[in-house]
Amino acid sequence: MKNEITLIKVGGAVVEDEDRLQRLLTDFAAIGGRKVLIHGGGRKATKVASQLGIETRMVGGRRITDAAMIDVVTMVYGGLVNKRLVASLQATGVNALGLTGADMSVILSDKRPVRDGVDYGFVGDVRQVDGHRLTALIESGVTPVMAPLTYDGAGHLLNTNADTIAAETAKALADCYDVTLIYCFEKKGVLRSPDDDDSVIPVITPEDFERLKSEGIVSDGMIPKLENAFDALEKGVSRVIIASADNLDGTQGTVIKKR
Amino acid sequence: MKNEITLIKVGGAVVEDEDRLQRLLTDFAAIGGRKVLIHGGGRKATKVASQLGIETRMVGGRRITDAAMIDVVTMVYGGLVNKRLVASLQATGVNALGLTGADMSVILSDKRPVRDGVDYGFVGDVRQVDGHRLTALIESGVTPVMAPLTYDGAGHLLNTNADTIAAETAKALADCYDVTLIYCFEKKGVLRSPDDDDSVIPVITPEDFERLKSEGIVSDGMIPKLENAFDALEKGVSRVIIASADNLDGTQGTVIKKR
């Protein structure tokens, strides 16, 4: 029987809310056994970029990462956000280690090709997560804290969506572990009515997903999040849950099921 | 017989000179066997702070690190500088891992107390380097790349002089390894005449050091660097060399000797 491991992905909005973040870190520290924290970046990078006189350009809700912007996200995500999380977790007794994909080459990615005339710049699509390296760290008692930055194998960091990093890391660890992946954010789960915080959909199967999409109940950023979740389940991850950052124990929120 | 390990400390001025840095990284990659890179920060933090509207205050050549400034140095040293070094080293085949003192609590420090009315703020004096953790990483084939940031054990990163981190790390590794510590910078070694780049003093013993200080040949930042070096030698480090970033093989520069 495989050992259990819990992967928690925390979004930028939670990272930026100091009170909520402290509660989340306390709850994360209370999770027994092996665990990994994956964090997003949030708007702090946009704010720092603006103060540095660097314009933030978005296409279809996605950040264009030029040479100046990859330096900013490396500073903010890889430095400020990641190291503050590591320091805070150490204070709660979690032996945290901050990682980008370049550290020990744990996450290799490919620079996204120009498509339909859109050049996203230094943005990476994950090619491979080194599950062996991560497993060795985890078995030595370390809790990886992963920033949304990957490595192109040729000297460059690439900006990468944290939801994707969470799903790919979960898949890579599924060979060795019984993996629970929890996407946590500011809502209680996937909501039937966006304005009703208690309208959490308890379970979503692939058939439900198609229906919810066609009904327009699931849209925008939730679609790739759910696609990532189903992909992770297909590739051996045991459980995927979308929940509030205030409920890390997996007892509430929306459970994503293979069938 | 202990295995050999080489620690290279590279200063901020080298980190900021792109051509010189690339040569240094190539030379670092060529060093056989176990190794560690410790880097300084340089003026980039001052520049970023200024762009973010944060004033840099210095007392006696040392940076006052208030709450806003520790965020800046965490971004710049722990994020930008550290992760770019890691990515560049990975591209040369070195299995680099970026570390601050908070990561796995490898370097604990004490916040410097207010003395003579001067509050340096979030500045740390090293208490303990975890040689066991570092040794385990190194023996697994990893090359630590250490940023000039330490950890207070209570959730906070502290700004710490990179020369000190290099010496303390060298001492902590001396239990397990035959340690060579090379401080490399933009000059060829400790110079007898600051304007003559070929006036390198080949060897400095403690007696030489006292004479050179009294003659004013060694002054300013070189004094704590040499004090760090002698302390490291007293605590079991085998060799300390002060050399040019262009000569990492230890065949040139100034050799610091115990007697």
Overview of this protein structure:
By secondary structure, chain A is of the alpha/beta class. Chain A has a single domain, classed as Acetylglutamate kinase-like (Carbamate kinase, 3-Layer(aba) Sandwich). The first copy, chain A, has helices at residues 12-15, 18-30, 44-51, 67-91, 131-139, 162-173, 206-214, 222-234, and strands at 3-10, 34-39, 57-59, 62-64, 96-99, 107-111, 124-129, 143-146, 149-151, 157-159, 177-185, 203-204, 239-244, 254-256. Chain A has an eight-stranded mixed beta sheet with strand order 5-8-2-1-11-13-14-12, sandwiched between helices. A two-stranded antiparallel sheet of chain A has the order 3-4. In chain A, strands 6-7 form a two-stranded antiparallel ribbon. The radius of gyration of chain A is 18 Å and the shape is globular. Chain A binds chain B through residues 48, 51-53, 71, 74-80, 82-84, 86-88, 90-91, 95-98, 100, 102-105, 136, 140, 142, 149, 151, 153-157, and chain B through 48, 51-53, 71, 74-80, 82-84, 86-88, 90-91, 95-98, 100, 102-105, 136, 140, 142, 149, 151, 153-157.
End-to-end gap of chain A: 23 Å
The CATH superfamily of chain A appears as Acetylglutamate kinase-like
Series of secondary-structure elements of chain A, N-terminal to C-terminal? EHHEHEEHEEEHEEEHEEHHEE
Q: Which structural category fits the helices and strands of chain A?
A: alpha/beta
Q: What is the number of independent domains of chain A?
A: 1
User: What strand order characterises the main sheet of chain A?
Assistant: 5-8-2-1-11-13-14-12
Average pLDDT metric of chain A: 93
Helix content range of chain A? 25-40%
The greatest interface here is:
A-B, 39 and 39 residues
Regions with little confidence, pLDDT below 50 for 5+ residues of chain A: none
The number of distinct β-strands of chain A equals 14
Q: Mind telling me the C-alpha Rg of chain A?
A: 18 Å
Report the CATH C-level class of chain A.
Answer: Alpha Beta
List the quaternary state of the chains: homodimer
CATH topology of chain A: Carbamate kinase
